[in-house]
Amino acid sequence: MQAEAAAARQAGPTAIPGAAGAPHPTCNPIAAGAFDPDAADVFAGSDDAPDSASASLSEADGDVQEGVHTYSREEDYVWPEEPLLRERLEWFRDQKLGLMMHWGPYSQLGIVESWALDDVDEEWSRDGIDWTDDPARIKREVAGLNRTFNPLRFQPERWAELAAESGFRYLNFTTKHHDGFCMWDTKTTGYSVTGRDTPFHSHPHADVCRALFDAFRARGLAISAYFSKADWHTPSYWSPDMPRERTSRGPSYDPAEHPSLWEKFVSYTHEQLDELLTHYGRIDMLWLDAGWVGPRSGQDIRLGEAVERARLRQPWLLSADRTIGGPYENVVTPEQTLPERPMLVPWESCITMGTAFSFRYEEEYKSVRELVHLLVEIVAKGGNLALNVAPQPDGRLPRSAIERMKGLGAWLRANGEAIYGTRPIAPFGDGQWFFTAKDGNVYAIRLYAEGEAVQERLELPLAAGLADGISQGMDGVPPGSFARAEALAGPDGAAIPALLERSGAGLALTVPEPLRAEPNPLALAFRLTKAQEGGR
């Protein structure tokens, strides 16, 4: 795939409840680490300093709007040639539910991650900052939040236990956001959670990435390491020797005009990636943010070299180089949205449980019903959900978020057969019904709105959308091919037979009486078994 064509947004994405109409910065954490007053002009800029040539560089801004990344087109996807990577992509598509976490010193203020450091994006990125409107002060104080970051109530084992019990299959954690603050024990900079200016540095779990990765692996969850390719703290990206009147997301200089400085940044980035991918155990996916950093913007970090070097040690490693396309975007990553139609390539929507990726005081979370419906639709369209839950600054997870995680887990314990390991099948859904397939079975999932009662007889909309789905390359559901139906969520955990009848051009189900007794279920899942067993 040509990288130039890789980053167009899919037409007609589905809006996410609680996300539409508000700026939701792309997965990021805000700064932390020891602020160096001698390098203050990196953040403050200078009124009489000319803008760097990079201010007018194409930073692939069309790929990131108000901090939210667009996503690459299905038709531009490049399947890897290596059999092991193809096998791992099928494994990834089986997982369906990941826990994403944005956490760092910015959590203390309940503001957007990293982006408050960027003057060009101030209109939306500083809407939570109400104590001053002085840009220099904002950047100085946000960058200095590492000096008070001390999450003493951090309990990685409890996070992992909750995630496992709630049906999550992998963790995607922000090792470093655009601010450049590292959540691992890096040797590349003191701007880190183990840096001497961060109070938490002496805590037994100060190496946050190690503590989390070990705890989640011990519970059987895989690890996806979020890493920002941009770094707004290191002087080889935002150089104090080349200040700008206003900071922006790209480097403070033109890499083409200063190749030796850019090479310093490339080496710095590779060294950090080598640390994470060598000393932190098995990493299943490297999830790369900051889509404006890439060859087409003149910011080539030679990512392929770093990934291939890591694969010498971890040959199973998947790479999600967001919006860049080509051989290192193994997974397409819609953000705060999902495609209108199924995509038959590996994809994952990162969507917040609340209104933002970072912790917010008095946050409003999506209901368990909304989360179940969101997951079902994403899975029916062939994707995974990376559900972002932002930890509190003290190291705990918000109580309301925990309640929703547990509610989602309870539904999955009864109905997970219709979710995990499935693939899309036509017709994938009509907004009320959604369909998945696995091991010769088809699963029909009926979503229920708040207050909606269960009717005894349900019509399956199999004819609608069937031809269109098959034309996209999906298998289809022939209405007359099923011998029996069963409801998955029986009172004792066992499936209950459900009467299945022909109804016009489709099928009708009679909901078993025990399920009709529930006044307003979140969603009901039915297993439709074919007369003759077939493959997936």
From TrEMBL:
Start and end residues of each stretch annotated as Disordered: 1-64
Domain Glycoside hydrolase family 29 N-terminal as annotated: residue spans: 73-417
Record's compositionally biased regions (Low complexity): 1-23, 44-59
Enzyme Commission code: 3.2.1.51
Pfam short name (any one): Alpha_L_fucos
Enzyme class, UniProt record, top EC level: hydrolase
Listed InterPro entries: FUC_metazoa-typ, GH, Glyco_hydro_29, Glyco_hydro_29_N
Domain of life (superkingdom): Bacteria
Record keyword Hydrolase present: yes
Job of this protein: Alpha-L-fucosidase is responsible for hydrolyzing the alpha-1,6-linked fucose joined to the reducing-end N-acetylglucosamine of the carbohydrate moieties of glycoproteins.
UniProt protein name: alpha-L-fucosidase
Record organism: Paenibacillus albicereus
